[in-house]
Specification:
The protein is an alpha+beta fold. It contains eight helices and four strands, in the order ααβαβααβαβαα. The chain has a single domain, classed as NADH Oxidase, CATH 3.40.109. It has a four-stranded antiparallel β-sheet with strand order 1-2-4-3, with helices on both faces. Helix 2 packs across helix 5. About 3% of the residues have low confidence.
């Protein structure tokens, strides 16, 4: 693949907010996960595990966890990181109609086999673990886009009030972390034009100068704040 084709693929990948009910072929799912295996990882630990969820009842349970409708008593409804529903939309949550959910989990036991310094530094190890999982997930998103499939990040599964329930529901080992979930299917959504910062704004050579940084006012304008 030449650069222009790869750039077009990166541009094509957009987060989907509405999915068709059409099933995703099993071989497409396997190809997407297969690509993730080739992502770089800290000390080649390959800490990832991917749980493909097709059962509607299990998917509904996850949706209810995120919506705060199915949490054990004593656990509060979604907190400050709640995914905000979109009133009037076919799928207010933006992902529950996807025919496939894929949970991305990381095995923390690999820490014991890392470089000596890393074994003693839990904070640094977790940073490397998260980076490794993030890269593998991005490979999956690009692979899906390459096959004409749509995806959506669903980070709420890693929230501290939800992760324990997810792990319990799927018998996920205690030593694993739930990093992220990918909703996968065929798009029924036309994304708006993507707001992009220019290359000249984000590329810097050798060192930063004060003029390289956005002003507070420019940040407000980018995020539509007054």
């Amino acid at each position: 693949m030449d650069y222009e084709n790869f750039l077009n693929l990166a541009k094509k990948r957009r987060s989907c907010w509405e999915f068709k009910s059409d099933p995703v072929p099993e071989d497409s799912i396997e190809k997407i996960v297969d690509v993730a295996r080739y992502a770089p990882s800290g000390f080649n630990s390959q800490p990832w595990n991917f749980l493909v969820i097709r059962d509607q009842e299990l998917k509904d349970t996850i949706v209810n966890f995120i919506a705060g409708n199915n949490l054990p008593s004593g656990i509060s409804s979604p907190g400050p990181f709640q995914m905000q529903p979109r009133p009037g939309k076919k799928d207010p949550m933006g992902f529950k109609t996807a025919p496939i959910f894929i949970l991305v989990c990381g095995d923390t036991r690999v820490k014991s086999f890392g470089p000596p310094g890393l074994r003693k530094d839990s904070k640094k190890f977790m940073e490397i673990l998260i980076s490794s999982l993030a890269i593998s997930l991005q490979y999956m998103h690009l692979a899906a886009a390459c096959m004409g499939l749509a995806t959506r990040w669903v980070s709420a599964v890693a929230r501290p009030d939800i992760e324990p329930e997810i792990k319990k529901l799927f018998n996920i080992p205690e030593e694993f972390i739930v990093y992220e979930m990918m909703a996968l299917g065929y798009s029924d959504f036309q994304p708006p034009p993507k707001k992009m910062r220019s290359l000249s704004e984000v590329i810097h050579f050798d060192k930063y100068c004060k003029k390289d940084f956005r002003t507070a006012e420019e940040l407000k304008q980018y995020f539509g704040k007054k």
